[in-house]
Amino acid sequence: MLRVYRYLLRPSRTQAAAMFRSLDLLRELYNGALQERRDAWRCQGHRVSAYDQMRQLKAIREERPEFAGIHVHLLQDAITRVDRSFAGFFRRCKNRSGKPGYPRFKGRGRYRTFTFKDAAHRNGAALVAGGNRVRLTGIGNVRFRQHRPMEGRTKQVSVTLSGDGRWYVAFVCDQVPIHPLPPTGKEVGIDLGITCFAALSDGPPGIDNPRPMEKAQWQLARSQRRVSRRKRGSSRRKKAVALLAQRHDRIAAIRRDHHHNAALLLVRNYDRIGIEDLEVRGLARGMLAKQVHDAGWGQFTTILRAKAESAGREVVAVDPRGTSQECSACGREVNKSLAVRVHNCPYCGLIVDRDINAARNILQRMGRIRRGEVADVRLLQDPRSPRLATG
User: Fold this and answer.
1) pLDDT tens per residue, range 354-382
2) Cβ neighbours of residue 79 under 8 Å, at least 6 residues apart?
3) Among residues 315, 325, 221, which one has the least CA distance to residue 267?
């Protein structure tokens, strides 16, 4: 099992300055690699590959001594990120889905992460004896707050500068052991929504929607106006930007904490969990885009999948089409608009909350999938798919 452990770094002033300097140099390398690819295609019609650019790193380190102080894996990671940007651009051009978005240069403050990709062999990054420091090549032994123990073998180590100026370290670990929970003999269907974040098939109460973005809307608006009034490049603007980033980080933390708590509640109480296979990207472009982003269904599904796998539970994604219109008692279709919040079946007389009716339909569809009555099945615990959980 693959898992990501994320901790708060406590660097000294010297270490923080070294990390800032590394980010600036990596940003320069990123922009240079992007410039080379763009000019080669526009002037000669030649496509430069990532391997072509990585072969130039030796000469760059000899000509620019400041790059010699940075681990070569960080330099390779910058070029890999350029390659991924172009791969995404070509993929979007091929799919013709909206604007393809040509890769752009990274401005100051837009390059925030560097990754040591071979930490499994202690190449560039490794834990120091004691467990509360990490050795980063070119930076030193940096303290971090280990609020929970790590398990498994460390594969990669990434250092990220958040919007509010804090540093975080993320350890990507594989071979993480599974800790199965005792069986409960219960299963549930979940209908994700906005009014109620998650309605359960076994009836109310469901899981409430905290709406962190909506509750902090006035604070965000006030902070954004403060940024707009400040002069670009001034110290007061930098402080206002940091305050705005802190507001957004706080909202994201509240949402993430709610997702972890909700997923843990479900995993502890149910052996099998049926959930809608939602196309979140499409829903996030609709008329309820802000509410969909505020709910964060995609992040919740990822967290639920990881916790279920760690606990030996099963999560099954079912087709969400028609779950709100179909009667869970008789199976007849009862058309109703989104404004109608109560399911009232004229055929069998069932009167129940709209979301609970949808959750019961999801539970029934999960049962048909497990019995093999549905051919198109997608388990969220597919071993071929990447499984990441941030803790």
Assistant:
1) 889 999 999 999 888 877 776 544 444 44
2) 29, 30, 33, 50, 53, 54, 57
3) 315
CATH topology of domain 187-212+254-379: Nucleotidyltransferase; domain 5 (3.30.420)
What pLDDT, on a 0 to 100 scale, did the predictor assign at position 374?
64
- Residue 334: CA count within 13 A, CB half-sphere: 24
Please state, in angstroms and as integers, the Cα–Cα distance from residue 235 to each residue in 37, 62, 239, 240, 258, following that order. 35, 36, 6, 9, 35
Q: One of 83, 271, 276, 326 is an active-site residue; which one?
A: 276
Residue with tokens 């098939």: 201
Catalytic residue among 83, 326, 353, 355: 355
Respond yes or no: is residue 36 known to be catalytic: no
Average pLDDT, the chain: 88
- 243-267 confidence digits (pLDDT tens): 999 999 999 999 999 999 999 999 9
Residue 184 has pLDDT above 80, yes or no: yes
| 10-55 confidence digits (pLDDT tens) | 999 999 999 999 999 999 999 999 999 999 999 988 899 999 999 9
Catalytic residue, candidates 77, 83, 187, 191: 191
249 counts as catalytic: no
Q: Domain ranges in the chain?
A: 3-174, 187-212+254-379
* DSSP code string of 136-198: ETTTEEEEEE--S---SEEEEEEEEE-TTS-EEEEEEEESPPP-PPPP---EEEEEE-SSSSE
Sign of CA dihedral 25, 28, 32, 38: positive
CA pair distance 105, 223, nearest whole angstrom: 27
CA distances in angstroms from 160 to 27, 77, 222, listed in the order given: 14, 14, 27
**294 catalytically annotated:** no
Burial class (CB in 10 A: 0-12, 13-18, 19+), 157: buried
In single-letter form, the type of residue at position 318 comes to: V
C-alpha 52/C-alpha 31 separation (Å) is: 16
How far from the centroid of its chain's Cα atoms is residue 185's Cα?
31
